[in-house]
Amino acid sequence: MTTLYILAVILIFGLAFRFYGKFLENTYKVKDGEPVPSKEKYDGVDYVPTNKLVLLGHHFSSIAGAGPIVGPIIAGLAFGWGPAILWILFGSIFIGGVHDFSSLIISIRHGGRSIAEVAKKYINKSTYKIFLVFIWLALMYVVAVFLDLSADTFAKEPAVAQVSVLYIFIAILFGISLYRLKFKLGPSTVLALIIILAGIVYSLSNPFLALSKQSWIWVLIVYAFLASILPVWFLLQPRDYLSSYFLYFTVIIGLVGLIFGKNQISYPAFISFNSKSIGPLIPFMFITIACGAISGFHSLVASGTTSKQVDNAKNARFATYGGMLLEGLVAAIALSTVMILAKGQTGANPQQIYSQGIGKFCSIIGINPRAGQILGYLAISAFILTTVDTATRIARYIFQELFEIKESLNSRILATVISLILPILLLNMKLKDFSGNIVPVWKVVWPIFGTTNQLLAALVLLVIYVWVKRENFKHSLAIILPMLFMLFMTLTALAYTLVIKMTNGQYDVITITALILFGLAIFVVIESVSAVRKKEV
């Protein structure tokens, strides 16, 4: 039964936060009251000291895109739920959590600087520039994948689109009331959530905001643009904070459904070491699950926006290590929607499988299954949009950093527009799979996105390892072992994918970009190893 499954997951993650998270905190000698960028560089735009709970809400909702939902479902369907849950547990605790927490600490200790800037200090300027290009291109995949998924959901479910748009306007009013009118956080939160709940009820019976997928793509591109250039307190931070409550609600619904629903596990725990649709379990399961175990994108959030909002270094573990374990829990819940399927019920796409599962869980507490299914779609929407706005903003940071552009409104606009060009091109192309069939953009981009995303995580761990060696921190194996594991898995997966695409003559923009990323990654590895050897000499 799913009861024992989810209780075991909660227990394991709880113990990990208490003991391994504390071990990491002690390793980095995190102290209460140590200098933090949000106070040292306060500017009211990017550097803003933030309440602990708001910080977790922003960070968790920013990192929790469609990855921890779509990835585990795809992997579970292909290989069985057994290998998938083992990787989610192990990866979240010993690799993803380490990666996220370390990324935040290293950024805090360097004045809120990005991982690339840290690479510049401890490796060399060439690596710094290459790292920036790698990150910027990787972010293009993130924005393209999640924009396509979001537009697809909005086009199919107008009610989801309406509530998501309502979120945006309520978030703006919430940010103004909190930061300009100085209203209290608690009452403002309750009022905002009540309005959103009313919007959900209304939209379920009056779904009038119906647009085509292509129209939604352009609407969401405009949204991403605005979220990138506006002050963080005006839209991005309050929207992420409010979205987090909805995400927490769906997590609770999932937990209640799994614990009290008496669901039978029908889907096989193991299917095969090789999937016709994905490839061999090693390495592809590890990159398909993506954000449910480890994600390089998390380091960009941690060092790009979260580090500029931490008001106390002691809150770093709560926001990042805790945030990663919470995302692992989301992945475990998503995987459970596969576990309760019969093997013959696998024709639906991941969003449908997840939403149907949430609908089933909701029925246990008396919520209509259709309403529950809409809530599932809303959860996916909330996850996706927060990733889109954060990824676009970080891409803007990276572009400004790469070309050393002075901060101003005009520079924010320029950097954002240029950063959105490649996603716009991808979203307006007709892309084909290996069989030559035209498929949605996200289906073609997802394997490369997953591989590149995990490779970025491996490179970030490599930079952190160089820093750890320079600072003579103890327990460096906690960094180097995850780094070596992820380097092997990701480089193998990327090479395998490139060989297949080039063998089939598919020299499209995705193949070319992936080839460039592979070369850049090898360069960073060589330079980082050289930096470590110089230190040891």
UniProtKB/TrEMBL annotation:
Belongs to the peptide transporter carbon starvation (CstA) (TC 2.A.114) family. The keyword Phosphoprotein does not apply. It comes from the Bacteria. InterPro entries: CstA (IPR051605), CstA_N (IPR003706). GO terms for biological process: cellular response to starvation. Keywords: Cell membrane, Membrane, Transmembrane, Transmembrane helix. It is found in: Cell membrane. Residues 4-345, 348-493 form the CstA N-terminal domain. The keyword Transmembrane helix applies. It is a multi-pass membrane protein. Its main location: membrane. This is Carbon starvation protein A. GO terms for cellular component: plasma membrane. The chain crosses the membrane at residues 6-21, 60-79, 85-106, 127-147, 159-178, 190-210, 216-236, 245-261, 281-301, 321-342, 374-392, 413-432, 444-467, 479-499, 505-526. Pfam families: CstA (PF02554). It comes from candidate division WOR-3 bacterium.
